[in-house]
Amino acid sequence: MAISEQQRQKKLAKKKQKRGVTVKKVTPSMTKAKAYATYPIYECLIPENLFSSGLGELIVARRTPSGDIAFSAFVIDVFCLGVKDAMFLVMSEDEYEQRIKVGMARAADRTFEKLHQTSAKKLLDGLLNYSKELGFAPHPDYKNAYDIFGDIDASVSPEKYSYGRKGRPFYMNGPYESEADINRILMTLTKSCGTDGFDTVFRLGDDDIDDFM
């Protein structure tokens, strides 16, 4: 006798439960950082060389009551473009430590340093204002990821952050930016800063860099 698809799924679920496998149902709140914004801060991280290289990740992580880590990761360009990418994820502490943190350190061959949550928010808020003045909007996923901060008050942080390189906006094209992207960014900088108001380095290939302005 043939069984329906619904009956088959129920049997599979029962088998998984017998084997000790937890079937976790994803709800809309699990993808929203705001739902996790009241949990204790686990850590906040940036690369040690962020303000010398210009590019890196800002991570803000909280520990959930179940022991998982809910975190937002922002790829930031402190020299020019602001928030280039953003995401929010929830995972086990072990996966966060081994896959996320170790993976990022290996990928860019760098180490990370911790900073206070008020300083993390102050750094990001200042960068958002800086890049906005230059004409650049943050990544579309930034808004959800930003909600992880909750009611953290950046004004109490004693840190002072400056953006750009040597007091000027500085742009170096990334490996995934097309010629059209580069031209659009240069036009935006020219409009906001004038032709002599910013610096650039043009990366021709993986190893070739050519100064052209």
What does this structure look like?
With 213 residues, this protein is of the alpha+beta class. The protein has two domains: 32-164, no CATH class; 165-213, no CATH class. 34% of the residues lie in helices and 23% in strands. The chain has helices at residues 5-18, 50-53, 93-108, 117-134, 142-146, 179-193, and strands at residues 41-47, 55-63, 69-77, 82-91, 112-114, 170-172, 199-203, 209-210. The strands form two sheets. Strands 4-3-2-1-5 form a five-stranded antiparallel beta sheet, with helices on both faces. A three-stranded mixed beta sheet has the order 6-7-8, with no helix packed on it. It is globular and about 55 Å long. The N and C termini lie far apart (76 Å). The model is unreliable at 16-28 and 206-213 (pLDDT under 50).
Query: From the alpha-carbon coordinates, what is the Rg to the nearest angstrom?
Result: 21 Å
Could you say which structural class the secondary elements and strand pairing correspond to? alpha+beta
In terms of quaternary structure, the protein is: single chain
Net shape:
globular
Low-confidence stretches: 16-28, 206-213
Order of helices and strands: HEHEEEHEHHEHEE
Strand order of the largest sheet: 4-3-2-1-5
Helix segment count?
6
Cα(first) to Cα(last) distance is 76 Å
How much of the sequence lies in strands comes to 15-25%
Strand tally is 8
Helix content class: 25-40%
Counting structural domains, the number is 2
